[in-house]
């Protein structure tokens, strides 16, 4: 039997865990610095909590858990004979694995509304599961890192989230990210202006290709999607949508002058963009991107997406936005929310490609005591305890070497794990201490070793 | 629709997450200090990896994941009509949630044997799932914290694990734990001496009641289990099994003098007990407990179990032992392993009962800037950025207060979250800074605030 794991899942080696934890810890630190509090929810929820929240496609991608015991006993014979998998599922499965962190969070807020102090700034770093077709950078089990505020519609939150993205990526040394921002109300304004709400997606998809196929190409595509020439004429400014964010805002303001909602969107964006300009960012750039339309049916205000530094070809490494009725699905109305998410796996790939993991300390002992003579071990173990009491990661090689070959094996272990300091033997109450980097050897007391290593 | 979660699962509030992380971080720190490296494995494994590894009862308690898509399509009609849940399961479910960390670890070692440097000291802190009947302290989703060494049969590992238990519980301030130790070979020796291997469990179960029902009661129970009077006579010393570990070892040595395996067990225990006596423990006590028989069919050498301090009535808070053929089930023979586990939920209950969470810092901002005047917010946000750059958790209350009532709401928020320092307003370039503990108020510059807070 050759052991393996399900496709789309991964084992993580010590090095990978250390690197992932470096990212997690950086995000967690920034979340807490910005006033977010952690919560955790169960890995599986009642199916009724999840089903129907992510559309038909989402329902299909949710991993369902089989009921325990004699689960077929109560299923109707006829239904079973029909072999209708979807209908049978609802009879034999009551629980399902979390698909994202947003729906469980909404459920949490409603369920615990009396214990929560609003506005509630929560963060959550947990895995989610999707029965998606695995491909490069897409897995069936992966982590999401979400921060959301519920119970406040202050635009200062949007300002803070831009700063939070900048803070995390700067701390990770991922320089040159682009934080794209848009507003659902601007998209609605454009829909109003072109006179066809149902064409909005076609419109933004076409507009998004401006860089690639040019103005003429975009207009051609729009016409083919039955967007009228008249409508296209009205949004003319979008085809020369370059320049600073301020230029873009001015151009939008003029274009959307007939749409109340559109102008509200411009006003909101102006607030965020101007305040960020005042406050400054460390390494990121904030860019108004009117083609940004992720989760169109979901967001009601700001929409965010973070693009990796230009030298790395990869999709977005984060995203989010404002949604005005997160908890409505669970019966708590009028709670506004806004949040962002970090894509751990994509960030990992970016950092790996940029060589940013070199400084991440690997989980290995700082000092290894070799085990060449059983009679020395008790004294060595006492010394090891002293090093550990001083916070120094220390190990005794477990098995005693009774031959030259076995001694070589221990030196190989030192080499393979890249251990910096080694104690070989004891002489006259002093330890033979070797620096494997510069090959320096000294006879030291335990106090001297501690000093040298720290 | 009233939202809820599946029975046996839990939501964790910020306070609970902070406390749990305090325990996790303490364990993780000690694991790394003692030379263990982290790995992580997927939440679900192929069913074939897990099924049959935990006995019939275990198989029943494993959560199975339904195949995706039209999973009923390929199932034989007749089989389906038979409504045999167990047989149908193997046709409609190929994956299952991890039941413990040991089997996935064994699978990991075999799968990655060529990348691993042996002896391999790994730790793993991840949740596991069991479809058990939920009760106090028993959940369907819970964390295990395991440290194991594979590829070494040195008894120094056993010594180290006793020290590791002591290090973790001392660091957690859980004083007065009892680390019970036994050895499977001693149990085998006893079985040999009483001439009935199949009676070993009955024997140890009865012996375990010595404290409660006295010598006569125990003998009566043994006789009722058809353990012969002659056998009972032979193990007479076990009925007066008090005194120091050294006394107990001497008594075992005499009693098991005819059993080679038993004597080997005594020798191994002597090694661990004597070395721990030399090295000393911080707050735990090591106690030879010959009735300790957990996982009898699994362990081959040392057996560990940790009892909580006597003032807390709760089961074991950790356990482990040596198993000589962990990876054999996956085709890699002759790899000896030894490991221990920490029971997070039980430890949490113990610490809660002993009031040991008081010092755990809650995830809340150190400084809150109240939001009474929108015109002040940009200057406040600049100040907040400076505080954050100095590592001080700081927040701006999101929504501006435009009435007395809304100002009160902000003060209530300060109170509810127990925030220590508050900035109310700005005057002549200085911040009105209030210490909510001693009610002291000062007009300070941002540099002065940083100094005061740090």
What's the helix and strand layout?
The structure is a homodimer of 454-residue chains.
Chain A: H1 14-33, E1 37-38, E2 44-46, H2 47-50, H3 55-61, E3 64-65, H4 77-82, H5 85-92, E4 95-97, H6 102-111, E5 120-129, E6 141-150, H7 156-171, E7 178-183, H8 184-194, H9 200-207, H10 210-224, H11 229-234, H12 245-255, H13 260-279, E8 285-288, E9 302-307, E10 316-323, E11 337-343, H14 344-353, E12 367-369, H15 377-389, E13 394-396, H16 404-417, E14 421-427, E15 430-435, E16 441-444, H17 446-453
Parallel strand pairs in A: 1-5, 7-8, 12-13, 12-14
Antiparallel strand pairs in A: 2-4, 3-4, 5-6, 6-11, 7-9, 9-10, 10-11, 14-15, 15-16
Helix pairs in contact in A: 1-7, 7-13, 8-13, 9-10, 12-13
What features would you describe in this structure?
2 copies of one chain form a homodimer. By secondary structure, chain A is an alpha+beta fold. The first copy, chain A, has 2 domains: 14-62 and 99-353, 2-Layer Sandwich (BirA Bifunctional Protein, domain 2), CATH 3.30.930.10; 367-453, Rossmann fold, CATH 3.40.50. The first copy, chain A, contains 17 helices and 16 strands. Chain A has helices at 14-33, 47-50, 55-61, 77-82, 85-92, 102-111, 156-171, 184-194, 200-207, 210-224, 229-234, 245-255, 260-279, 344-353, 377-389, 404-417, 446-453; strands at 37-38, 44-46, 64-65, 95-97, 120-129, 141-150, 178-183, 285-288, 302-307, 316-323, 337-343, 367-369, 394-396, 421-427, 430-435, 441-444. In chain A, the strands form 3 sheets. In chain A, strands 1-5-6-11-10-9-7-8 form an 8-stranded mixed β-sheet. Chain A has a 5-stranded mixed β-sheet with strand order 13-12-14-15-16, with helices on one face. In chain A, helix 1 runs antiparallel to helix 7 (156-171), helix 8 packs antiparallel against helix 13 (260-279) and helix 9 (200-207) packs antiparallel against helix 10. The longest helix of chain A is centred in the first third of the chain and has 20 residues, at 14-33. The first copy, chain A, is globular. At the A-B interface, helix 1, strand 1, strand 2, strand 3 and helix 4 of A face helix 1, strand 1, strand 2, strand 3 and helix 4 of B.
């Amino acid at each position: 039997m050759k052991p393996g794991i399900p496709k789309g899942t991964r084992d993580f080696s010590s090095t990978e865990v250390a690197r992932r934890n470096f990212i997690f810890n950086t995000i967690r630190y920034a979340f807490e610095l910005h006033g977010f509090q952690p919560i955790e929810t169960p890995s599986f929820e009642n199916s009724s909590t999840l089903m129907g929240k992510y559309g038909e496609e989402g329902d299909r991608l949710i991993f369902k858990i089989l009921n325990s015991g004699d689960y077929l006993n109560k299923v109707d014979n006829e239904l079973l004979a029909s072999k209708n998998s979807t209908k049978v599922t609802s009879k034999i499965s009551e629980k399902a694995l979390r698909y994202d962190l947003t729906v469980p969070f909404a459920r949490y807020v409603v369920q615990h509304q009396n214990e929560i102090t609003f506005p509630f700034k929560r963060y959550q770093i947990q895995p989610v599961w999707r029965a998606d077709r695995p491909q490069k950078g897409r897995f069936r089990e992966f982590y999401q890192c979400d921060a959301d505020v519920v119970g406040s519609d202050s635009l200062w939150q949007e300002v803070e989230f831009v700063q939070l993205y900048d803070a995390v990526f700067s701390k990770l040394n991922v320089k040159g990210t682009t934080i794209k921002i848009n507003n659902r109300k601007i998209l609605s304004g454009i829909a109003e202006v072109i006179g066809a709400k149902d064409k909005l997606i076609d419109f933004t998809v076409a507009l998004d290709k401006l860089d690639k196929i040019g103005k003429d190409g975009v207009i051609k595509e729009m016409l083919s999607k039955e967007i009228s020439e008249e409508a296209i004429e009205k949004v003319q400014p979008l085809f020369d949508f370059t320049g600073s964010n301020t230029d873009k805002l001015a151009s939008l303001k003029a274009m959307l002058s007939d749409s109340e909602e559109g102008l509200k969107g411009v006003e909101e964006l102006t607030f965020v963009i101007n305040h960020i300009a005042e406050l400054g960012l460390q390494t990121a750039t904030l860019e108004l991107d009117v083609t940004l339309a992720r989760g169109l049916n979901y967001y009601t205000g700001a929409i965010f997406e973070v693009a990796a530094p230009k030298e790395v070809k990869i999709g977005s490494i984060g995203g989010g936005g404002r949604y005005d009725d997160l908890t409505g699905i669970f019966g708590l109305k009028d709670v506004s929310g806004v949040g962002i998410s970090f894509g751990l796996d994509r960030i990992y790939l970016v950092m790996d490609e940029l060589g940013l993991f070199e400084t991440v300390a690997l989980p290995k002992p700082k000092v290894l005591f070799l085990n060449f003579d059983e009679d020395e071990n008790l004294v060595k173990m006492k010394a090891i305890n002293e090093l550990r009491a001083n916070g120094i990661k220390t190990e005794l090689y477990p098995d005693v070497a009774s031959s030259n070959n076995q001694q070589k094996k221990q030196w190989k272990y030192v080499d393979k794990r890249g251990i910096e300091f080694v104690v070989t033997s004891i002489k006259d109450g002093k330890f033979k201490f070797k620096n494997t980097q510069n090959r320096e050897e000294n006879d030291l007391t335990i106090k001297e070793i501690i000093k040298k290593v720290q």
